[in-house]
Amino acid sequence: MAETATGEDTKPRYIEVDSQLEFSRMVCALERVPRTVFMHEHEGTQVLSVQMDILNEKPIIYYVPAERGGQYLAYGIRGRREESSITDTVSESGVLYSPIVGIKSLPNNLRAGNGTGDKYFPLELNDLSSLAKLSHGFEDAPPFPLFAFPAGGRWMVGVFMNFNEDGPSYFCHVTMETEPARPFLRYATTNGSSPELVETPSDHGYSYIKIIRLKETHPLVDYAQLQN
Question: Contact 84/22 with Cβ under 8 angstroms?
Fold first, then answer.
């Protein structure tokens, strides 16, 4: 088992996203270059996976069961509808393709860990405008994706981050009464309009942040720290 000098488990934690479409949006949409993903066995099922964070030396890996084998995960938007598929070739100019690297067998240090107690501290924000500013920041880089999942009868939408390299990690979020109905958050810094959820990142003059829906409540947020 991969452990620190104090005996703590440092093996990855695997978090399932809701569907292959959610996963393909995560690795392709709004990225300068689509992320490379891995196909391997996890708990007896072939999955697609990608590391999106690290929490106290533990890789945080998001995954989804693979619908089929193939060489590329394709993601595109036709009209106002997202599409995702696994293909063997790069064939369409308007589609984003994430390379799939097949792993025959994971080494022990990349298998799921035992669930030790490291958690993200929840930090609730006032509104979507605050969340958009925090996720996008002011650097010339793609914004951090937002993750959405049910918790306590409502929905949490937020971004995982830390504010300094050696400090604690936070889940900076807003709480919504219902599931986010659309997969992108659109906002503008120049015209004073309020952020809103939209189907696609296609209107000019705005910035966009993708929202990734998880299969279940995120297991690594310290919900005991939430203020009522």
Answer: no
In what helix (H) or strand (E) does residue 23 lie, and over which residues does it extend? helix 20-28
Other C-beta atoms lying within 10 Å of the C-beta of residue 57: 12
CA separation for the pair 28, 42 (Å, rounded): 22
3-state DSSP assignment of residue 34: coil
Give Dmax over CA atoms of the chain in angstroms.
Answer: 54
Tokens describing residue 27: 């690795």
Amino acid, single-letter form, for residue 179 = E
Q: How far apart are CA 1 and CA 113, in angstroms?
A: 9
Under DSSP, the state recorded for 142 is P
d(CA 135, CA 159): 6
Q: What is the pLDDT of residues 165-215, one digit of tens each?
A: 778 999 999 999 999 999 999 998 777 778 999 999 998 889 999 999 999
